[in-house]
Each structure stands twice: as structure tokens, then as C-alpha cells.
Design a protein that fits this description.
Layout lengths: L1 E10 L2 E6 L5 E5 L6 H13 L18 E8 L6 E8 L2 E6 L2 E2 L2 H7 L2 E4 L5 H4 L2 H15 L3 H20 L4 H5 L2 H34 L4 E6 L8 H7 L1 H7 L10 E6 L2 E2 L6 H23 L4 E4 L8 H13 L4 E5 L4 H6 L11 E6 L2 E2 L3 E2 L1
Parallel strand pairs: 3-13, 3-14, 8-12, 12-13
Antiparallel strand pairs: 1-2, 1-4, 4-5, 5-6, 6-7, 9-10, 10-11, 14-15, 14-16
Length: 366
């Protein structure tokens, strides 16, 4: 998929903007606080229905508590899918091709991933970030995953409610059969995806970081020597004391190690950024291969924490990526100049935009 037109009104510092990107790599250049990240946020919201910045939707522009985003997207299934996202005091509304739609419909028909400063959480913080990363890919490539995940979440909620209420054991365990059936399916989908992800990640890590000893494993959230029903029975007393279910796929952990050590403790920030880029690129290629949907990649503050060799490796990977990419930077570094300058390839699929406070310049093709 790729965006052919993106427009917004009263979104952050932009009274209005319109962007007509190219299907390849789009470079957004501008000073700090010019609005580059805001443009990426708009693209992300149009593909996910939310911001990656953690900011509430009511943080609108100077015209008051409302904003509007519009986009036209080309996919293999639809050449001109229209997306409209509006927020006002009444709440958030979403339309696909002028029909009211759900966030699930939006995420199923589009695919957007972002590499930005807070992406370090994927390696540095708790397992919830890695489960979200994993499940986004599983959602797109395993059609039975989402229904099973929803069934699991409903059963888990009911079981936890019974535990908190101090209900008799029989009432708590009445939810175990559904929890086991749905949870086992969720785990099977995840395991199949992780196996494929290892293969895709091999090439991306080699291209971005060179020879490296690494491993990617999925801890399923309960003792691997036991089935889920046995694990639930064995942990019942602990669950009753805690008022929540302590084993199951909701406790799964995706573990990335380098030379046998956790990636969050034994690499530099620059290496972490390159590892996360490798994870995103590998996931995106899997979604393209298995779902026929090529994700749009957003890279905010490209040079940050990256020395010249890492910058050169990353821009080469992005230029080789078979989908649409948006990259922001305060300047055209030497690495960026190789792809977007006099020494770069004259590729009509790539473009450069100049962002100033509240405005975006006309596209300059490379």
C-alpha cells in the first residue's frame, strides 16, 4: 500500500496541510519543531486510528477542539481507498470510502509501522511492547488469530472478575475451557509467526549490523512442560490470592538476545535503533509476502544516535524496501545525500519535502 494524498486541518501546528507523496522514499527536511513529526503522526493515525506519541486526541490545533485528517491510499485490493478521521468534542469518527467503519477495519486494510525515539521501549521496557509488536504482524498474516485473541480476552476478563470477587473455585474454572481453547490457538499463531520472523530477521540484521550472534524466542506465558489447562490448575491458589490469572498467552514474552545476553543491556543506543529497524523491516516483509499488503514505514529523526556507517546501512535498506517510506531529518546528512542529492540515484519514486512551521513545500523529486 502507499499514500497518494494526505491532508489535514487544525492538526497540531498546521492550520491546514496537503502532502502528495511518492510511492518510494519521501524525505521530510526541516528545523526542530517545524512539524515533521506531526506529519508522521498524521500518517500513523490514518493507518492505526491513534497517535504514536501518546498524546490525547483533544490536543488539536489553534482553531479549537477539533481536527480532520484525509487520505487516499492505493492497495492491491483497492486503487483509491479513501480514509477520513475526525475528532471533535463528540469523539473520534472514522470513515472508509465515506462509510462509518471501525478501527479493526482500518487496521485490517492498511499497515503502518513507525521507528521513532520512543521505539527503544520495544527492547528496554516490559514484555507488553514486544507482544504488541508481535501481534500486529500475526494479526495481518494469520486470519484465525484475531477471533481467537478476542475470545481469549473475553474469557480472561470473566475469569479475573470471578477471582477478584472471591467466587467459588468451580465458578472461576468454568472459564478455563474457553481460555484454554482460545489461548492455545493464539499461541499456535504466534509460534508460527515467530518461526517465519527468524528467517526474515536473518537478512535484515546482516544488512544493518553485519555478522552478529543472535536469537529470537517466544516464552509462551506458562511452563512449556505443561499444557495450559494443567498450568491453570496448578496456579489456581496463586491466582485466587492475586485476584488475577497469572499464566497464559497474555503473559507471553518475545526474547531477543545477542551473544546470549538480553538486547536491552549489552548494546549501544545506536545498535538498539538498528535492531529495532531490523525487526520492523523483517515484520513488514513478512506481511507483504503472506498478506499481500506492503506496510508503510515511518522513520522519525533518522540521524539520531546513528554514526555514519549505521546511517549509510539504514538508508540503503530503506531505499531497497519495496514499499513506501517517510523519513524525517533536520538536515541532509552525508548518508541521506547519497540517496537524495546530486550523488544519489535519480529515482522518480522518491521525493524531498521541506517542512516549515505550519507548511509543507511542493514535492521535489529526486
Amino acid at each position: 500500500m502507499h499514500f497518494t494524498r494526505v491532508a489535514g486541518e487544525n492538526f497540531r501546528l498546521f492550520p491546514a496541510f496537503e502532502l502528495r507523496p511518492r510511492p518510494g522514499v519521501n524525505l521530510l527536511l526541516g528545523a526542530n519543531a517545524a512539524g515533521k513529526t506531526t506529519l508522521l503522526e498524521a500518517l500513523y493515525a490514518l493507518g492505526r486510528g491513534k497517535s504514536f506519541r501518546g498524546a490525547p486526541p483533544e490536543q488539536a490545533g489553534p482553531a479549537g477542539p477539533h481536527w480532520h485528517l484525509r487520505a487516499t491510499v492505493t492497495t492491491t485490493a483497492r486503487p483509491d481507498l479513501g480514509i477520513a478521521l475526525d475528532w471533535s468534542a463528540e469523539g473520534l469518527t472514522l470513515q472508509l470510502d465515506q462509510s462509518e467503519s471501525s478501527l479493526q477495519d482500518l487496521v485490517a486494510r492498511t499497515a503502518v509501522q513507525v521507528l521513532e525515539p520512543d521505539s527503544h521501549r520495544l527492547l528496554q521496557e516490559g514484555p507488553v511492547y514486544r507482544r504488541r509488536y508481535l501481534d500486529w504482524g500475526v494479526f495481518h498474516v494469520e486470519h484465525r488469530f484475531y477471533p481467537a485473541w478476542r475470545r481469549y480476552q473475553r474469557a480472561l476478563k470473566q475469569r479475573n472478575s470471578a477471582l477478584r470477587a472471591g467466587s467459588p473455585r468451580a465458578e472461576v474454572q468454568a472459564w478455563d475451557a474457553e481460555l484454554v481453547a482460545a489461548g492455545t490457538e493464539v499461541q499456535q499463531c504466534r509460534e508460527a509467526h515467530v518461526e517465519r520472523l527468524r528467517g526474515a530477521l536473518t537478512a535484515e540484521i546482516a544488512a544493518l549490523l553485519g555478522p552478529l550472534e543472535w536469537s529470537l524466542d517466544l516464552a509462551r506465558g506458562w511452563n512449556a512442560e505443561h499444557a495450559l489447562d494443567a498450568a491453570l490448575a496448578a496456579h489456581y491458589d496463586q491466582d485466587a490470592r492475586a485476584g488475577k490469572t497469572n499464566v497464559g498467552p497474555h503473559r507471553a514474552e518475545l526474547k531477543l538476545k545477542l551473544a546470549g545476553h538480553s538486547a536491552k543491556r549489552h548494546v549501544s543506543r545506536g545498535q538498539q535503533k538498528m535492531l529495532i529497524a531490523a525487526l520492523l523491516l523483517a515484520q513488514a516483509r513478512l506481511v507483504r509476502e503472506r498478506a499481500g499488503l506492503t506496510p508503510v514505514l515511518l522513520v522519525d529523526d533518522f540521524p539520531a544516535e546513528l554514526g555514519a556507517p549505521f546511517q549509510q546501512a539504514l538508508i540503503a535498506a530503506l531505499l531497497a524496501y519495496p514499499g513506501q517510506v517517510f523519513v524525517t531529518s533536520i538536515e541532509r546528512t552525508a548518508a541521506l545525500a547519497q540517496g537524495f542529492g546530486d550523488t544519489g540515484k535519480n529515482d522518480p519514486d522518491n521525493a524531498v519535502f521541506h517542512v516549515e512551521h505550519g507548511s509543507v513545500s511542493t514535492t521535489s523529486r529526486v
